[in-house]
């Protein structure tokens, strides 16, 4: 029928006269059957719209749960999937109807209107279902059941009538109708299943359901497992969080808790059960971590793989649709009864464009779903593995660490890197089996479009695949070597930071800096190799598609003597771009697979040695047992052996049943959690206010807590406020006291406490708090005056028990030992002052706060960097201010790699992308030409452009990697030297929070700036921290005198003149020494004493120019020390600090890192320090191993090594800064005699820890608040009965 001038008339069945005829039967009229199909849709819309508008959200306020996520009805996911498929089929039905209508002479609304109404009804059905479900009103689902039944019947009638047509098999409409019948039938079955399970109709007792436990907890805000399928796919439920985060900075509490199924404990138990099941299985005698992970997390990985396969298959719709669209086939008008075939539908460019759009949406949805499931599963698996490792670490013997079999670095590597490798392998797991399918499908389609020439392009890919694998393997090997060097470097750097004060005092910073630089050089060699292989990997991934396209098109031109058609060219180009992804991931996946396989075999632990022998003791229940003995005799080891922290060669430890798992332990070396004071004390036990207050009082912690900015809710530990040793120790003792255990082990809890705190802790904490509860207490101590309180005493010597019993028993049976104790007990182990060091500890807290406030007024911008108790790595601090992309820092980072490299990288990247665009443009231009002459010219230009693109890919990959390497090299070198030469106060406040290792990674993020702006900002925070360090002032190492002007034997005599000396730690702080004047003759033995905070330690640091001498001077042997180069000054003096510092290496290295002394001199020093026999017994002697931090020696032994180290340097001036605080009194007496004899001709300045140690000195200086109060011989000062020194001596006797 021809079209009228006025256009096509609007008609449901068309304008033909017999269009509405039913003479052959009502159901034989196609238009009537289509009209019949409208009835269910109209019914659903008529019924549901009033319900939706009237009852929208009316139930939401009745129950306090997350209503929009409350999934009650069975078959939820199946319903959503079927509805999505229904909508997709309706789109196809509508498209087919529109196209058919367009080629008809008149309008036939019945061809597409039922499809449109079906689409609207399907959309309404899922909205209706969602609201009914969240309102938990299942009876209203009866409407949907009726709808599915009606739709199924009407569509079945239409399918039946289609099937009667002998030519129906050619029609697309037949297959669409069949699909709709199947989908309606399945949805009807889902509805029947809901009725069967929930019994909301046709049953007397409907099923009652409760919401999931997670949703009853309003703290759970991660709702991904509970929302409907559409919200899961689009993450719609996160909109409120995203909008809120955009308006104001996000806080950790806003994120809330994880659901139970996603918590580390849940996943740990799942993995542990899978592992334990293998142990008890007969068929698998050796449990495998791989099998355990598969059994625990295999199901979501299979789901993710399914999503990935669907996404990959949908990805190939792009080339197919592009080929069809570019072909531009024209449609022909057909007779009135036209029915479209599926081939004709797929040749319509408009339809193909719609299908391409839908395919891309579905492809990205499935791909994103695959990524999400694998990432979530990977995180869950890593959490489970970390929990298993932490559980193992907590059960790991301490001797594994002290004997060097397992270092902190190895454990950190296992926790931070190895588990991360497994997680990343899981992330990439779906690619492992999806990539081959993707590559094969791509090659098949290429063969379809390009013929035999496609095989040439495919061969390029296949032939270069082994090269990629080889590069990936080399990358893995190089990374392993690099990691070893990096671990060694980080270990050395950490040791430098921990011992920086000692290194500066001994002028050894350059020696240790050179050691780090040597290791860094090895690391950089590996990093250069790694950067090269990484560049080659990136280059191959970028260049292979270009090379494959070039090879394919050149071959096609040779075989066919012309270029490909536009449809062939752009379809092939699209396919090669698709192949980029698997090619890019191939080497990465293989590399992570190799790493993961290596990682799976690294979860093993070693054995260790024994240091105690012939121990036969019994600890009486409910009594106080004290263990005493000299340094290194095995006191701490005995406690560790009882705790199961040492491996027994013979014998064992036997506990009463009720006590085995009820032990509280306070170690000699204090350890704090990165948590609040309260959390450190309660340590996971239930909070009891009365018990907590009693413990706080027993440990004298309340005055310290009152000084903290947030009281006992202040965060302490490595990332929190810096507490003193005594404060840390009292918190650890408080933790042991608070635990409601039957047994309490206390390892030298008084070592860092003054006498008043020690007495208070002994009386209130141990004798009253613990003994009143009849708890078994084992106390290791050097404070022999407390032996009178012991119910049982164990005396140890050289790893064996020398004597045990009550004090009365020992007095009776070992008179010599008792007399020795009595002599020592007569000198009460007492600090110099009644106000004690505790006063200084509390003043130090105040000073820290005041100094921070002063600095903050100067520089608000660096507030986070300077504030002593801020936590730069803490989430809440990091997100406290809305941050911006630090472009200035980015430029600082890039410029540190060299301006030429930056220019080359930017220029080559811009040029590369321009060439790639030019390749596409020229391909379009070439394929649209017909002339052979033009064709040959176009081919030549195409070859040149491809060659240029490949070359630029190589240049950009090399410049990016080596720019990052150059930046990391320069930043690390500058930072290390800046840290080494920075003032000690600045290092202590900031260095431990600095990270430079991630600098290498930053450039890689620049490739994905748009996608990774947040990650870029996080990475740049490290660079900002580095820049803040680089901007600080270094110490003035030069001095006004040249080193050559200083006599080689200076100081020869040891004469010290102090004239009007004023000292401060910072220009913003008050002076700690005020106009001090003193004269020390050559060879004099001088004792300096005073209350804590009097300035005596500051005076000792002034000798080394470690503090700010802003007025006055110190003259040693005629030279003002402030004029000397620091290296010269510090290398000519000797000092022993209170805290012992040892470095990993050998005993020889710790005594003489400069390698300037003979073995005889080293043995002499060890003999003086009472260590010669012990060292001789060690394997290797002087070359015996010292583990990290000297953990294979006791604290007292470490201090003796430090004494020997000072003796090695034959300086005429020797300073002891409370160096005997960590050793027992008997050893101290020996050392005092040695110092007086071995250094008879040298000047010795002793900062007194115990007053009796300086009674034999030639001169005593008494200080108070930075001033010298008394200055004379000790016997002269003792005659002044009302003097300060006399009062100190009386208190110490």
TrEMBL record:
Entry keyword Phosphoprotein: no
Molecular function GO labels: ABC-type transporter activity; ATP binding; ATP hydrolysis activity; sulfonylurea receptor activity
Main localization (coarse): membrane
GO terms (BP aspect): potassium ion transport
InterPro entries to which the protein is assigned, alphabetical: AAA+_ATPase (IPR003593), ABC1_TM_dom (IPR011527), ABC1_TM_sf (IPR036640), ABC_transporter-like_ATP-bd (IPR003439), ABC_transporter-like_CS (IPR017871), ABC_transporter_C-like (IPR050173), ABCC8/9 (IPR000388), P-loop_NTPase (IPR027417)
Family annotation (Pfam families): ABC_membrane, ABC_tran
GO cellular component, one term: protein-containing complex
Cellular localisation: Membrane
Domain ABC transporter as annotated: residue spans: 584-823, 1056-1290
Transmembrane stretches, start-end: 38-57, 78-99, 111-129, 141-160, 172-190, 345-362, 369-390, 422-446, 453-471, 530-558, 570-594, 885-907, 939-960
Record keywords: ATP-binding, Glycoprotein, Membrane, Nucleotide-binding, Receptor, Repeat, Transmembrane, Transmembrane helix, Transport
UniProt keyword annotation of ATP-binding present: yes
Domain ABC transmembrane type-1: 310-595
Family indicated by similarity: Belongs to the ABC transporter superfamily. ABCC family. Conjugate transporter (TC 3.A.1.208) subfamily.
Protein known as: ATP-binding cassette, sub-family C (CFTR/MRP), member 9
Species the sequence originates in: Oreochromis niloticus (Nile tilapia)
The organism's taxonomic lineage, starting at the top: Eukaryota, Metazoa, Chordata, Craniata, Vertebrata
Gene (name only): ABCC9
């Amino acid at each position: 029928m021809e079209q009228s001038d006025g256009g096509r008339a609007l008609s449901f069945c068309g304008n033909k006269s017999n269009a509405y005829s039913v003479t052959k039967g009502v159901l034989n009229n196609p238009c009537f059957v289509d009209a019949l199909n409208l009835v269910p849709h109209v019914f659903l819309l008529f019924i549901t719209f009033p319900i939706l508008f009237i009852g929208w959200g009316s139930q939401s306020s009745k129950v306090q749960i997350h209503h929009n996520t409350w999934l009650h009805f069975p078959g939820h996911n199946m319903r959503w999937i079927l509805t999505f498929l229904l909508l997709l089929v309706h789109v196809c039905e509508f498209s087919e109807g529109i196209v058919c209508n367009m080629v008809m002479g008149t309008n036939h609304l019945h061809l597409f209107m039922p499809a449109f109404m079906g689409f609207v009804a399907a959309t309404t059905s899922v909205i209706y279902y969602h609201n009914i479900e969240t309102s938990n009103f299942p009876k209203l689902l009866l409407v949907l059941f009726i709808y599915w039944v009606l739709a199924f019947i009407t569509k079945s009638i239409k399918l039946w009538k289609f099937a009667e047509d002998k030519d129906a098999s050619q029609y697309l409409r037949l297959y669409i109708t069949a699909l709709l019948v199947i989908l309606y039938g399945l949805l009807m079955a889902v509805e029947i299943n809901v009725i069967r399970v929930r019994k909301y109709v046709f049953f007397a007792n409907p099923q009652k359901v409760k919401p999931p436990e997670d949703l009853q907890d309003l703290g759970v805000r991660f709702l991904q497992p509970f929302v409907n399928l559409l919200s899961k796919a689009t993450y719609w439920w996160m909109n409120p969080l995203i909008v809120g985060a955009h308006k104001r900075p996000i806080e950790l509490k806003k994120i809330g808790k994880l659901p139970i199924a996603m918590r580390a404990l849940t996943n740990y138990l799942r993995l542990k059960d899978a592992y334990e099941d293998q142990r008890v299985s007969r068929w698998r005698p050796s449990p495998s971590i791989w099998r355990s992970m598969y059994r625990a997390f295999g199901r979501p990985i299979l789901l993710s793989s399914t999503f990935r396969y669907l996404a990959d298959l949908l990805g190939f719709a792009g080339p197919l649709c592009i080929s069809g669209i570019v072909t531009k086939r024209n449609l022909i008008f057909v007779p009135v009864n036209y029915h479209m075939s599926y081939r004709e539908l797929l040749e319509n460019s408009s339809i193909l464009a719609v299908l391409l759009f839908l395919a891309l949406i579905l492809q990205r949805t499935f791909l994103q779903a695959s990524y999400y499931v694998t990432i979530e599963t990977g995180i869950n698996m890593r959490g489970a593995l970390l929990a298993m490792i932490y559980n193992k670490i907590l059960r790991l013997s301490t001797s594994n660490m002290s004997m060097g079999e397992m270092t902190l670095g190895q454990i950190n590597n296992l926790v931070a890197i190895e588990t991360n490798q497994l997680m990343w392998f899981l992330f990439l797991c779906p690619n492992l089996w999806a990539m081959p399918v993707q590559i094969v499908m791509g090659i098949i389609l290429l063969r379809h479009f390009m013929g035999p020439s496609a095989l040439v392009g495919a061969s390029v890919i296949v032939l270069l695949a082994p090269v990629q694998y080889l590069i990936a393997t080399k990358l893995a090997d190089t990374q392993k070597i690099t990691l070893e060097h990096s671990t060694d470097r980080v270990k050395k750097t950490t040791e430098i930071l921990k011992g920086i004060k000692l290194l500066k005092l001994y002028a050894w910073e350059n020696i240790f800096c050179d050691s780090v630089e040597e290791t860094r050089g090895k690391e950089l060699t590996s990093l250069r190799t790694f950067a090269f292989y990484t560049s080659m990997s990136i280059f191959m991934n970028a260049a292979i598609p270009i090379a494959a396209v070039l090879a394919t098109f050149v071959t096609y031109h040779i075989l066919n003597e012309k270029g490909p058609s536009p449809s062939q060219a752009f379809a092939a180009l699209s396919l090669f771009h698709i192949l980029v992804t698997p090619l890019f991931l191939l080497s990465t996946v293989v590399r992570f697979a190799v790493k993961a396989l290596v990682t799976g075999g690294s979860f093993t632990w070693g054995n260790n040695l024994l240091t105690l022998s012939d121990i036969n003791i019994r600890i009486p229940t409910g009594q106080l047992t004290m263990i005493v003995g000299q340094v290194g005799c095995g006191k701490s080891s005995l406690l560790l052996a009882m705790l199961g922290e040492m491996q027994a060669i013979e014998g064992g430890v036997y506990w009463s049943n009720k006590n085995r798992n009820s032990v509280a332990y306070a170690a000699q070396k204090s350890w704090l959690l990165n948590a609040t004071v309260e959390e450190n004390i309660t340590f996971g036990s239930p909070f009891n206010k009365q018990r907590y207050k009693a413990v706080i009082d027993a440990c004298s912690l309340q005055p310290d807590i009152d000084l903290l900015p947030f009281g006992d809710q202040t965060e302490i530990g490595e990332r929190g406020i810096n507490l003193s040793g005594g404060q840390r120790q009292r918190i650890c003792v408080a933790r042991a006291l608070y635990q409601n255990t039957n047994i309490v082990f206390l390892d030298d809890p008084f070592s860092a406490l003054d006498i008043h705190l020690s007495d208070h802790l002994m009386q209130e904490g141990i004798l009253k708090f613990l003994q009143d509860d009849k708890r078994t207490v084992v106390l290791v101590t050097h404070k022999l005056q407390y032996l009178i309180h012991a119910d049982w005493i164990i005396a140890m010597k050289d790893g064996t028990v020398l004597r045990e019993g009550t004090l009365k028993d020992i007095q009776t049976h070992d008179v010599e030992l008792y007399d020795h104790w009595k002599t020592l007990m007569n000198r009460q182990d007492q600090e110099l002052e009644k106000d004690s060091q505790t006063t200084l500890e509390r003043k130090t807290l105040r000073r820290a706060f005041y100094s921070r406030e002063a600095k903050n007024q100067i520089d608000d911008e660096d507030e986070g960097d300077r504030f002593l108790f801020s936590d730069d790595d803490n989430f809440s601090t990091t997100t406290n201010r809305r941050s911006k992309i630090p472009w200035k820092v980015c430029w600082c980072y890039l410029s540190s790699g060299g301006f030429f490299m930056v220019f080359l990288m930017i220029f080559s990247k811009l040029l590369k992308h321009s060439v790639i665009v030019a390749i596409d443009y020229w391909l379009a231009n070439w394929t649209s030409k017909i002339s052979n002459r033009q064709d040959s010219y176009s081919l030549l230009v195409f070859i040149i452009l491809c060659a240029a693109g490949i070359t630029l890919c190589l240049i950009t990959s090399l410049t990016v990697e080596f720019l990052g390497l150059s930046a990391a090299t320069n930043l690390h070198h500058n930072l290390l030297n800046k840290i080494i030469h920075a003032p000690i106060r600045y290092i202590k406040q900031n260095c431990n929070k600095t990270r430079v290792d991630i600098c290498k990674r930053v450039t890689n993020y620049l490739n994905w700036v748009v996608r990774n702006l947040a990650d870029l900002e996080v990475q740049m925070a490290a660079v900002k921290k580095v820049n803040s360090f680089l901007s600080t002032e270094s110490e003035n190492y030069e001095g006004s005198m040249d080193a050559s002007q200083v006599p080689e034997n200076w100081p020869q005599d040891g004469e010290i003149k102090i004239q009007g000396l004023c000292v401060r730690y910072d220009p913003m702080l008050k002076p700690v020494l005020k106009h001090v004047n003193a004269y020390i003759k050559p060879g004099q033995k001088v004792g300096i004493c005073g209350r804590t905070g009097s300035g005596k330690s500051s005076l000792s640091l002034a000798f080394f120019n470690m503090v700010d001498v802003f007025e006055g001077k110190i003259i040693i042997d005629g030279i003002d020390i402030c004029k000397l180069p620091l290296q010269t000054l510090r290398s000519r003096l000797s000092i022993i600090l209170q805290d012992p510092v040892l470095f990993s290496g050998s005993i020889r290295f710790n005594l003489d890192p400069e390698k300037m002394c003979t073995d005889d001199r080293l043995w002499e020093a060890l003999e003086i320090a009472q260590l010669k026999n012990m060292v001789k017994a060690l394997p290797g002697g002087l070359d015996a191993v010292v583990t990290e931090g000297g953990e294979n020696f006791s604290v007292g032994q470490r201090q003796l090594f430090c004494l020997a180290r000072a003796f090695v340097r034959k300086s005429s001036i020797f300073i002891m800064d409370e160096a005997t605080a960590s050793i027992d009194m008997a050893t101290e007496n020996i050392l005092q005699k040695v110092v007086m004899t071995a250094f008879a001709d040298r000047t010795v300045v002793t900062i007194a820890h115990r007053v009796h140690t300086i009674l034999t000195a030639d001169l005593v200086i008494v200080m108070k608040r930075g001033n010298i109060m008394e200055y004379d011989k000790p016997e002269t000062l003792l005659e002044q009965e009302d003097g300060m020194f006399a009062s100190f001596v009386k208190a110490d006797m």
